[in-house]
Amino acid sequence: MGDSSDEENLGTDWLPYSEREDWADVTPLPQDDGPNPVVSIAYSPKFREVFDYMRAIIAKGEKSERALKLTTEALNLNPANYTVWQYRRDILRELDADLQDELDYLDDVIRQNAKNYQVWHHRRVIVQMMNCAQWELELTQNALDNDGNAKNYHAWQHRQWAIRTFNLYDDELEFVNRLISEDQRNNSAWNQRFFVLKHLGFTPEVIERELLYTMNHIRVIKNNESAWNYLVGVLRQSPSGKLNSSPEVVQFSEGLYTAGNRSPYLLAYLIDLYQEQANENNQLAQKVYTLCEDMASKHDVIRRKYWSYVAEHLKTQLSKPSTTE
Where is the composition biased (Acidic residues) (predicted)? Predict the structure, then answer.
């Protein structure tokens, strides 16, 4: 049925289903691991009993209030069990249940299982059934604000889905600004900023503003991979799509290099920048070779083979005879 869990938060006065009069009509269905299981899992008696009855309910297709409560107990033991979540949705539809109650229930589950895919998927389905995302931004903000969850992939995916599906873009940049100000290396927040602006549109004014915004952050932390990636992403949104589309960024980057900064992200940007124009300028090609050598031998040794390849590839391209029509 699913993976076992040592967390059994059902209460010390929990009564086994086999001793409940209102469950006397149900015969539990044990898990069939075959005659010679490779690994026999030592389920606790409580876990085994709950899921034996869960299997029996699913087998008979019962969709009732007691079955709904049973799914709650099963998910308390194993919140990652896809089958139980799916059956719970089937029950909710059959009973025409109050889905607001389900959202309240999920608030608690997500608070305790913020990185559980199945919980977030269930939440999305319920929101779709209600056609209302009124509480999703607050929910995901709370999840991301919790210690250790600021880069929670599932929470960010759910937030983007809610924003995109229900057009909730209005205040998102303000939210992202706060996260970046709190942690300038929060790659998820930079990615969210790009997600929002991609929807709103990278006009020339927006591109200029975002380049200035990003350069100001790089001035504070020059070795910030997230900011450098965002800078390149914004430059690619210019009409030409080239890294030299902003003279200010070129001047800024070369100024950092001249001042002695050797951030691998700065060097990677300069390599890509000079490669774009190397066919027209042998001096720029030589800069690419020098920078690639520095990356391979000093600043990004773990990817030395890649940087050697970049240099060799450029040499090969430049050695080919030019063709004219």
Answer: 1-10
Task: State the Cα–Cα distance between residues 86 and 102, nearest whole angstrom.
Answer: 14
pLDDT per position as a tens digit, 188-216: 999 999 999 999 999 999 999 999 999 99
CA–CA distance, 117 with 101 (Å, rounded to integer): 21
Q: How many helices (H) and strands (E) does the chain have?
A: 15, 0
pLDDT digits (tens, 9 = 90+) for 258-285: 999 999 999 999 999 999 988 767 899 9
- CA atoms within 13 Å, Cβ hemisphere of 76: 16
Whole-model pTM?
0.88
Residue-level pLDDT at 133? 97
What Rg value do the Cα atoms of the chain yield, rounded? 28
Residue 203, CA distances (Å) to 156, 193, 200, 209, 234 in order: 25, 15, 9, 10, 11
The pair of structure tokens assigned to 267 is 């060097």
Q: Which residues are catalytic?
A: 115
| ∠ CA 238-270-312, rounded to 5° | 115
d(CA 263, CA 248): 19
Q: Which two tokens stand for residue 277?
A: 């124009």
